[in-house]
Amino acid sequence: MTAPAVHVFEHRLLSYQRTFRGSLFSSFLQPALFLTALGVGLGALINQSGTAAAALGGVPYLVFLAPGLLAGTAMQTATFESTFPVMAAIRWVRSYHAMLATPISVTDIVVGQLAWIAVRLTMVAAIFVVIMTMFGAVRSPAILLAIPAAVLTGMAFSAPIAAFSATQENAEGFNILFRFIINPLFLFSGTFFPVEQLPALLHPIAYATPLYHGVALARQLSLGTGAVTELVVHVGVLLAYFAVGAWAALRTFRQRLVK
Predict the structure, then answer these.
(1) Residue 161: CB partners within 8 Å, gap ≥ 6?
(2) What is the DSSP letter of 56?
(3) pTM of the predicted model, to two decimals?
(4) Which end of the chain has fewer CB atoms surrounding its CB within 10 Å, N or C?
C-alpha cells in the first residue's frame, strides 16, 4: 500500500475513533443475542429432532449456526461500510474530492478505503469468534482461520458494492440493495439451514453467491471438516468476486471523481 493510500486509511481510522464505542457494543451484543435466541433457544427444539440433526451433519444447531452467522455478519458489516460512507465521501461531505486536491490519486482512495474495511472486518470477526468460543460453538482450533475467511467474505462484497455506491446519487439504491440482495442472501445462503433444503431449482443460484462460499468456508473451518480442495474452491470464488469488484471500483470511482 502506497503512502497516499495509507493516508486515506488513516482518515477512515480517525473518523472511526469518534464512534468506536457504540460499534464495539453492537459487535459484542449482536452475536450474543443471535446465538442465544437462535442457537440456544431455537436450537433446543431443533436438536430434539433426529431428522434435523442428520441434516445438520450430526452437530448441535448452535455449532452449525455460529460460523454461518460469522460469515453473514461479515457480509452485513462490509455492505454498510461500502455504502453510506462512500456516498458521503463522494456526494455529501466530499472528502474524496478534497483528497484529490493533494497527491492522493483515485487508486489510493480505493485501496485505502478497502484496506480500512478489511481492518474493520477483522475486528468484527475476531470479536465474533471470541463470542462463539464462549458459547461452546467451536469444534476445531482451525476456527482461528475462520477470521481471515470472514474477512475475505466481507471483501467479496465490499469491493463490488463500493463500485456500485460510486454510481449512486441518493440512498434509494441502497434500500434496494439491502432489501432484495443482502437480506435474501443472509436468509437463503446456508446461514440458518443447509442449502440442500431449498428447492432444487434454487441450488445453482445459492451456490453462485459469495455468501454461500463464505458460510461453507467458515463452517468447515469451525468444525474441522471439508477437503482441502473444497476449501480452495471457496477461497478462489471469494477472491474472484473481490478482484472483479476492485477492478469495477477503480473504474466507477475514476468516472465519478475525475472530470
Answers:
(1) 78, 79, 82, 83, 177, 245
(2) T
(3) 0.94
(4) C
